[in-house]
Each structure stands twice: as C-alpha cells, then as structure tokens.
Amino acid sequence: MASVVPFVLPGCSGGANDGGPEPLVVGGLPVTCNLTLPVACVGKDSAIKAGHATNDFRFEYSKYSGWPEIKESLMAGRIQAGYMLAPLVMDLADKKIPVKIVSLGHRSGAVIMVRQDSSYQKFSDLRGKRIAIPSRFAVDFLFLRKMLTRENMTPKDIEIVEMPPPDMPAALYANAVDAYCTGEPFGAAAQSAGYARVLRMTRDEWRNYICCCLTVREELIQSKPEMVQDLVNQVLGAGQWLDQKQANRDTAVQIAAGKRFFNQDPRILRFVMENPTDRVTYGDLRMIRDEFEELMQLSIEAGTIKHPIAYERYMEERFTKAAVGASIPL
Prior knowledge:
Layout: H1 4-12, E1 24-28, H2 36-50, E2 59-63, H3 67-76, E3 81-85, H4 86-94, E4 99-104, E5 107-108, E6 110-115, E7 130-133, H5 139-150, E8 159-162, H6 168-173, E9 179-183, H7 186-193, E10 196-201, H8 202-205, E11 212-217, H9 218-223, H10 225-242, H11 246-257, H12 266-274, E12 280-281, H13 289-302, H14 311-314, H15 318-321
Parallel strand pairs: 1-2, 1-3, 7-8, 7-9
Antiparallel strand pairs: 3-11, 4-11, 5-12, 6-9, 6-10
Helix pairs in contact: 1-2, 2-10, 5-13, 11-12
C-alpha cells in the first residue's frame, strides 16, 4: 500500500505526465467532502501507469482555501472544473455564468460541535448562543436552519457569525463561540483533541444531505465531453471504492493527507473515517432532482437565492446517467 502513493502522486498533482496530454485541473478544498477527488486523481493515474486505462485523460487536484476562491477561478475560466457548493452553482448559473453540476461528490459530513465541558445536550440548549458557520451560502447554514425549524426556533434565537472553518476549533476552545456548524475534518479536529463533542450531525438529522458537487464550465462539456464523462466515472468509482471497506478509507487517508493534496494530519482524517464510519459517505452519488429542489427552497428561505432557478439551468445529468464507476486500482 505504501508503495502505491509515491508511485502515482507526481503524475496527478502537477508533476511529469510521461509526454501525455496535459491533465485537467480540478479545484477542491482540503475537506473530507472532497475526498473523492484525490482518490479519483490517483486512481486514474495508477490505471494509466498499469496499462489498464481505456484513455489517457489525467486529472490534477488544485487546492483552494475557500469557496469564494474556487468560485472566482471558475467564473474567470482559470479552472474548468471544481467541487462547489450546490447553492453557489445555482446562483452562478442564474447569473449566466456558464457552469453546470455534473456529479455529486459525497453525502452527509456536516456536524454541530460544542465544548466537551458544556451543558448543551439538546439543540434547543443553543438558544441565545453564538454559533459559527462557514458562509450563508454554505449548506451547513441550511442544516443549522433545518435544526432551528425543528425546534420551533428562528435565526433570531441565536447569534450567527461567519468564520473560516479552519478557525472554528480554536474559536470554540477559546470560548469565542459556543458552537460551530461545518463540514469535516474541522469537527473531528476539535473532537479528537478532546475539548469538543458532537451535538448533532447530518448522518442522523439529514441523511440525504449534499453540499459539494462536481461542477464544470459549459465550454468543457461542449469541447471535451469524453473527458467530462471520464472524470464523472472516476469520481463515481472513487465513491464506491471509499465505501467498499475500511482498508480503502485508510489508503485514501494516506493519499489525501500528503502535501500535494490536503496537507493535513492523517490522524484527524482517519478520525473522520472511523467515528462513526458513516460520518461522511461516498457510495451513493445519485443526483436526485427533488433533493436539489429542497436545497433551492431552503436557500430561498435563507435569502441566499432570490427566486426559483430552473433545474436544467444549473444541472447536466447526462454524464451521471451514462456513468460507469471506474475501477480504482489502489
């Protein structure tokens, strides 16, 4: 297992590509919701090196620090593909930015964290408290709003502060916030350190939760549909492989923790993969219209999307309909 990672990393992360075509750069964040991307990248490169690939398309992971940066790069055409928040893609498409969702990247994976020594046991105990979210466009915010509605509360019953997820564990430790709602591994970072615990997680409260979607510019769809199809196949295969067995997740942790990908402590990534094992899931990447319509309605209620947007404006289903999960030879 250890020999696989150094063997394949250079070709899929900006190194030499043996004279083949230039790789497609795909933007992503160093979050476990984006874990299918490094696995897809490494898996495809390994298949090419082993002579098992049916084409020579390669994919290169490009790490971004936040959703606004990926959004700007996609808008400007600096990258042709990236993992993006579904509501952001809806908003961009509505503003005539030529982008389309072509696949999911994961399911579940968001948590609401509180201090280990706090008295909070029920979500309603957060009434009047200060809660951090990544952004009002983040689906984590919609998760928080769903929990508020369930407890007959409104956003006025709490104090919401926007904060970059990497800053949230330290803010909770310093009592600068009473809780935070975000994706992994930023919940696991505080939990594994011993000073925080999970109050609620999407796996229990919103099982079909989605946020990060593989998004591509329409020029790429028109000019290189075979490449887009192969990327979707690789992502789907990566998701199936990740949920196949725990050993595969251990391999994915080794890959993603490296400097060319997430550059994170592998112990924290492994904590996400094991506590519990379905904290984030990847095997079911079906794109279901009703789920996106629900996200849109929640976004309209939250005020981040101003009006309904036609499904076909931001969605391109043909690649997932034709998808065959690629074999991940790792």
